[in-house]
Amino acid sequence: MARPLKWTEKKIQSLKDAGHGRGLGKDYIPWLSVTDVSSLGRSRRVFSHKTDRTHELLSDVEYRLFLVLEWMSDVVDIREQYPLNREMTLTIAQQLGLRHPYYPGTQVATVMTVDFFVTRMVAGTKSFMALNAKRDEEASDENSMLKLEIQREFFESNDVPHHTIFHSQIPRQKTDNIDWIRSALLKPGEAEPRPGFFSGLTARMAADLSGSATHPSTTLSDYCIAFDERHGLEKGIGLRVAQILMHERVLRVDLSSPNLAAEQLSAFVMTAQRGKLRAVGGA
Fold it and tell me: What are phi and psi of 189, to 5 degrees?
């Protein structure tokens, strides 16, 4: 169970000195971790092959929004629990006539954080976007909305688009499918049976699916079972290989499908040929 931090000015300075809230990519350190706060939702630590680090996500809504962001090809970095300059938020709150949040039971002004500070790269141009992930019921919570108003003004003054995403706006089926697809990637510390095991199999499956021997009405599940049998693989390896191909966008899918494994092969589109696959787990 998380043990909330006892917030003091000394503690805030120590976090700054330790680099919290700074860095890019794999070097970024979130301002808060799952052990620092009490969460009403299910907090979790999630490794991302895109950023090559473990992310600190404080709720189910944050996790589902994270899945969408990680899946987006133009998103190149995701910084969660990103701290805002406290002097600026205090000034903004005063200008708006709002009470700046303070840590409960203290006279210490809160270091406000946005759930996600995202870097995008579109046509060679870098841009930033700030996102908060909230449950629908928080829209009627006055304190929550006042904090968002301070954040909105903060990012507007810094020319960064800021959006609040409510859980009902995040497509459940899509994120369930993304979650299932990414579950096939190598976990930190997990070793392949031999070097190049999965890259070899993804190339083999990609070439196979690009050919004319497969019947379009065959389901992906049945095809993968046959793939395992043909190549003497442990049961389930073929489906994992197909998931990796989906993650690599070699095998294009409709993420609104209620059951990707049960879809016929005709529902999938191949977009790359053997020898052009990126390494398993690549961004």
Answer: 90, -10
Q: Output phi, psi for 132, to 5 deg.
A: -115, 140
Return all residues near 268 (Cβ < 8 A) that are at least 6 apart.
209, 220, 251, 252, 253
Residue-wise pLDDT tens digits, 167-220: 999 999 999 999 999 999 999 999 999 999 999 999 999 999 988 667 889 999
| Domains within the chain, CATH numbers bracketed | 9-170 (3.40.1350.10), 186-270 (1.10.10.10)
For the segment 211-257, what is each residue's pLDDT rounded down to a tens digit?
866 788 999 999 999 999 999 999 999 999 999 999 999 999 999 99
Which of 169, 192, 161 is closest to 68 using CA atoms? 169
Global pTM?
A: 0.92
What is the rounded (10 degree) CA torsion for 103, 105, 109, 110?
0
Please state, in angstroms and rounded to a whole number, the distance separating the CA atoms of residues 248 and 242.
Answer: 10
Residue 67: its H or E element = helix 60-71
CA 8 – CA 109 distance, rounded (Å)? 9
Q: What's the pLDDT tens digit per position in 104-129? A: 999 999 999 999 999 999 999 999 99
Q: Are 30 and 57 within 8 A, CB to CB?
A: no
- Beta-strand (E) ranges in the chain? 44-48, 53-57, 75-83, 113-122, 125-134, 162-166, 251-252, 269-270
First-residue to last-residue Cα distance in the chain: 32
